Amino acid sequence: MKSLEVDQCVERIAEGLDRGLSLEDLDGVLLSYSSHRHVADRVRVNFLLSKRVPEDVGRWQLQHGISTAVRPVVVPANEELGMLGRVCVPLLVRGFRVGYLWVQQDPEEVGAAAILERLPAVRGELDLLGELLLDSNTAASEQRRQLEAGFLDACSGRREALEEVAHWRVVQHRGPWCLGVLLEFEHGMEPTQDPQASLLAHRTAALQATVGIDAALFSAGRETHAVVLFRGTAMRPEFDRVQRGHRDELDKRSGRKAAPVILGLSEPFSEVSALPEALRQARQAVQAAAVDPELGAVVDYRSIGIYQHFLGEAAGPNSVRFSELKAGDPARELRPLLELMYDHSGSVQEVADVLHLHRSTLYNRLARVRSIIGADPMSGPVRVELHVALKAARWADRPRI
Predict the structure, then answer these.
(1) What pLDDT, on a 0 to 100 scale, did the predictor assign at position 71?
(2) Which of 4, 69, 360, 390 is the most core-located residue (most Cβ within 10 A)?
(3) Distance between CA atoms of 72 and 62, rounded to whole angstroms?
């Protein structure tokens, strides 16, 4: 971090506001504070000593909406915590949240009007402070950008990049490996309005989500998703931690509730040259989980079943019987039932329990399917045809990443 420049900027803002300031990151860790002599409450003193916001103070601050705010937030005093009133200034750069600057009120002040009135005068310094924090962020550093670009080039199959990654210390002699793709998915995904902000958010979220997890060797971000290189011996709890951590980090940095995050995993591989194939598998796994929630939030390529057969650009189903069924089922009552029957090995009782329907209702609907397509939907060849068509219809709706 450019700590000297950050410290100097904080001092200039403190002088402009004639207040004591503290600067913290999104996790409540102290980054800098002003030497401006000012009355300090118990919370400020403890924060400067411990370098981290206590949990009870953090909860009080979050109750006032600082994690989603884009403008200064007045946080009232809390006598129980020994805390004077404060103004929280969220620091954002191009919509990307990089930290919080805290301005303490004087003990005799009733409100924060005096602080709010003076903030516009230091707007330029606040913007500079945000840029300094962004530039000092590990994921935003030039060296990190180059490493991620090289890794993604290797995943796309560029020979020179594959050779370079093979010699990375974090990769050498640490195989077998496994590749993961993290996708924040909402049905009907729209292109992001700010690709650069989205790219940085995914890069930073993936980096922070893998900190301290030995099984995660490297991560890189794209505009819609992130790619993580794992040890091939990684276990499910480690994958779960990364998946949950990525979602939580996106929450903090976007100022909104993140959509569900899915982690798709490749099969283990022992040669760096297999990175492109591993990326294809991980992408296909995460796309399958996006269109078929039954697969779960963490899914490996082996477990996606029939979706392994669909090529990346495969079109929708091409089945005469499926077309007839679709035309004869405008209310979509029969197709979900039929898919569940196939997925549950034809067990009427299991499907009845899942749908909370009587078995006789299921038999009646199966009879309707039979009358529409002119064949028994549970017979061998027809069953295979319709099961594949139902999954292909889901696959046609997958997110393009």
Answers:
(1) 92
(2) 390
(3) 13
Average pLDDT (4-20) is 91
User: What whole-number distance in Å separates Cα of residue 51 and Cα of residue 41?
Assistant: 15
Dig out the tokens for 221 from the structure: 């971000």
Q: Which amino acid is at 70?
A: V
For 18-39, letters b (16+ CB in 10 Å) and e give ebbbbbbbbebebbbbbeeeee
List the one residue out of 45, 36, 42, 41 whose CA is nearest residue 8.
Answer: 36
Q: Which of 318, 308, 316 is nearest to 287 (CA)?
A: 308
Q: Can you give the pTM of this predicted structure?
A: 0.64
Residues 6+ apart with CB under 8 A from 289: 262, 264, 295, 296, 297, 299, 304
Three-state DSSP state, 222: coil
Distant-in-sequence, close-in-space partners of 349: CB < 8 Å, separation ≥ 6: 359
Q: Which helix (H) or strand (E) holds 371?
A: helix 359-373
Please tell me the predicted confidence (pLDDT) of residue 327. 92
Q: How far, in Å, CA of 370 to CA of 151, rounded?
A: 52
Token pair recorded at residue 367 = 């009879």
| Other Cβ atoms closer than 10 A to 98 | 24
pLDDT in tens, 337-382: 899 999 888 788 888 888 888 988 889 989 999 999 999 999 888 8
